[in-house]
Write a structure and sequence with these properties.
Blueprint lengths: L2 H9 L3 E3 L2 H6 L13 E4 L3 H16 L6 E4 L14 E4 L7 E5 L4 E4 L5 H9 L3 E2 L12 H6 L7 H4 L6 E7 L5 E3 L5 H8 L4 H15 L1 H7 L24 H4 L8 E8 L1 E2 L5 E7 L2 H11 L6 E6 H9 L5 H7 L6 E7 L4 H14 L5 E6 L2 H8 L24 E2 L5 H15 L5 E4 L4 E4 L8 H20 L15 H4 L5 H14 L15 H7 L17
Parallel strand pairs: 2-4, 3-4
Antiparallel strand pairs: 1-2, 5-6, 6-10, 7-11, 8-9, 8-10, 12-14, 12-15, 13-14, 13-17, 16-18, 17-18
């Protein structure tokens, strides 16, 4: 063990290791990248996190950089959960659910608790947090906040940002910051403090005042998760809430050590509707008709995805029945979670009337025993697309926002990419959010396929931008997508994001290399040689 690791081990309650096997284990996340850390630390308390941050800060003051990467389950697909220096693993010990206030619909917890565990605990009170990602079985609350996670319910219920009331953050110098909306009067008091927190409030207030025109330019009603959410920090009455900055910050502004979240009452027996379309045009028209009906879930899945899963031995009764009636280009699965029985019956009748006489196959189910067969289609896990072949989905082409009115042209551009690279790029996505994923399958052991990863990502990014979209419509840019995402936005805005980061992390020790652009050669050098997509094979996404 190095002298640094030995020193930290003597001063922390948690564990510190420089074991080669452990370091290799934490050198990868769910992305196609790999970086081996110097050590892994398992903090047991907020005090442990503070000591690690303070130590790293003091080293940086002396010219020695030991960056800190905060990690939950490591399910991030953008390389944001890996890094050199210290990996701060929150899963081992920081997984407590402190209290649930069912009256105020609030829950207080530590960042290492998984989304599934938290929602199962809340379910006992008739509550849940709807912004759960597909990886809820193993992803953590801290990671969900760090990525401003979203999922199939986000179209109706919003991303994580809507559900986070307050966070406790250990800053890069070891101080603790409690976020929350404070009045203009209290902002002035904060700005008068001779602490790092005071400096942050002064600097953020000045930055907002100096960049008002750029902030106005990004205050638009579309999903664009790139950078930092400075738009919602300062309000017209002069009050400030720093919480939005940490949503999607991926550990670059501080380490989240505790959270308070809003909850929502659970809906009972949603009406589930599955529709098979024979062509893309009819499916796109249906989006315009069905979206105003306020579905909680509205997933679109390319028929090729279901066909591949079926070819691999999976059985979907609805898909088989639809194929008996003709081609299946697209399948839509919707859920309506209104607890009013009459309202759900009215919706069912309306949907049946809309598609009466059209060449589509529609099934409506409300009873859980029957609707389960339809709901399983909503979030098909990647493993269902992989048979005995040595292929995997690198997840690099996930989460782009594309406006509905440009989808037809976007699809044509994707068809050209398929031909150019001799790959299939079937789309699935959240129709009411206009967020889509291309389900790319490659054999990463083949040099030719490995070379396609970043080339396809670059062209995918350009095509998304050409069609009025945003590369980062879901989750955040990490270290993998930052270089491509920043090419498509105003350099002044990129500089503003860099200034925000510098305010919170002047020593550049918090998740260095993430949300910073970087260069393509470093990305190429960091590509994994052993990527097979099986890092989380012990879990099923969507469960």
């Amino acid at each position: 063990m190095s002298k640094v690791a030995q020193y930290l081990s003597e001063h922390l309650l948690g564990e510190v290791t420089t074991n080669d096997g452990v370091r290799r284990r934490f050198s990868t996340d769910a992305s196609v990248l790999s970086i081996v850390p110097d050590m892994v630390i398992y903090p047991r308390t907020t005090s442990d996190i503070r000591k690690v941050a303070r130590f790293s800060w003091q080293l940086a003051e002396k010219g020695h950089k030991l960056p800190i990467t905060t990690r939950g389950a490591g399910s991030d697909q953008t390389g944001a959960a890996i890094g050199s220096g210290i990996i701060l693993n929150t899963v081992a010990h920081l997984d407590a659910i402190y209290e649930v206030d069912s009256k105020q619909k609030l829950v207080r917890a530590q960042p290492g608790v998984t989304f599934k565990a938290l929602n199962e605990a809340l379910r006992l009170q008739g509550l849940y947090i709807p912004a759960y990602p597909n990886s809820q079985s193993f992803s953590t609350i801290g990671g969900a906040i760090a990525n401003n996670a979203s999922g199939i319910l986000t179209g109706k219920y919003g991303s994580m940002q809507r559900w986070v009331k307050q966070v406790e953050v250990v800053l890069s110098n070891g101080e603790v910051l409690q976020t929350g909306r404070i009045s203009k009067r209290d902002v002035e008091k904060k700005k008068g403090m001779q602490t790092f927190e005071g400096e942050i409030y002064r600097s953020i207030d000045n930055l907002i005042n100096d960049n008002d025109k750029f902030i106005d330019s990004i205050a638009i009603e579309v999903r664009d998760n790139v950078g930092y959410n400075i738009v919602d920090v300062k309000h017209r009455d002069g009050s400030i809430d720093l919480t939005p900055l940490f949503l999607g910050s991926q550990g670059t502004l501080g380490v989240i050590s505790e959270v308070i979240l809003h909850c929502e009452p659970i809906s009972t027996a949603p009406l589930v509707c599955a529709i098979a379309f024979q062509d893309y045009e009819t499916a796109r028209d249906a989006v315009d008709v069905l979206s105003p009906m306020d579905p909680a879930v509205f997933e679109l899945i390319d028929g090729r995805i279901l066909q591949r899963a079926t070819d691999n031995g999976n059985n979907y009764a609805f898909f088989n029945e639809a194929l008996d009636r003709g081609d299946v280009a697209v399948v839509a699965v919707l859920e309506f979670d209104d607890n009013n029985v009459r309202a759900k019956k009215k919706i069912g009748k309306r949907i049946a009337k809309i598609f009466d006489g059209q060449p589509v196959y529609v099934v409506l189910e409300e009873k859980e025993s029957r609707s389960a067969d339809l709901r399983v289609i909503e979030t098909l896990p990647t493993m269902t697309l992989i048979g005995d072949e040595d292929v995997s989905d690198p997840g690099t082409l996930y989460g782009a926002f594309v406006p509905t009115e440009r989808m037809e042209d976007f699809q044509k551009a994707i068809d050209k990419l398929e031909k150019k690279y001799s790959v299939d790029l079937p789309l699935s996505g959240h129709a009411t959010q206009n967020v889509y994923h291309a389900r790319l399958l490659l054999n990463m052991k083949k040099p030719s396929d490995k070379q396609k990863v970043l080339k396809l990502l670059a062209e995918w990014s350009a095509v998304v931008a050409e069609h009025g979209g945003h590369l980062i419509g879901e989750a955040a840019e990490g270290r993998l997508k930052a270089i491509f995402a920043y090419k498509e936005i105003d350099p002044n805005i990129v500089q503003m994001f860099a200034s925000i980061r510098a305010i919170f992390d002047p020593m550049d020790i918090m998740n260095t290399g993430v949300k910073q652009g970087g260069d393509l050669k470093k990305l190429v050098d960091s590509l994994r040689h052993d990527y097979d997509g099986n890092d989380f094979a012990g879990y099923i996404e969507g469960n």
